[in-house]
Write a structure and sequence with these properties.
P-loop_NTPase
C-alpha cells in the first residue's frame, strides 16, 4: 500500500481499493500507511456527494493522495473517480 500511496508523485499513479469484511482492519491499515505521507499531500474524505469531484479546481488533486473512508452509499461518485484515474480530468455540463 505504501508503494501505491507514494506513486501519487508520478505521471501515472497507481490506485487501490481495500476490500474485506467489517472489522477486518482496512481502515486501520490505510490510516497507518497514510501517516507516512506528508499532510499537505493528502486529501481525506469521509463522505462524498455525487458532484464532489467536480468542485475541485484543475490541479487541486494533482499528486495528492485521496483517502476515502467508505464508499458505501457513494456509488454515484465511482464514475467520475474512474474518469479522474484514467483520463486525469472530468467535466460536467448542467
Amino acid at each position: 500500500m505504501y508503494l501505491i500511496f507514494t506513486s501519487r508523485k508520478t505521471s501515472n499513479p497507481l490506485h487501490c481499493i481495500s476490500l474485506g469484511s467489517s472489522g477486518a482492519g482496512k481502515t486501520h491499515l490505510q490510516s497507518k500507511v497514510a501517516e507516512l505521507i506528508p499532510e499537505e499531500d493528502k486529501v481525506e474524505i469521509t463522505v462524498l456527494s455525487a458532484n464532489a469531484f467536480y468542485y475541485f479546481n484543475r490541479t487541486e488533486l494533482q499528486h495528492k493522495l485521496i483517502l476515502i473512508e467508505d464508499l458505501d452509499g457513494a456509488e454515484s461518485v465511482l464514475y467520475p473517480l474512474r474518469e479522474l484515474q484514467s483520463k486525469k480530468r472530468i467535466t460536467k455540463t448542467v
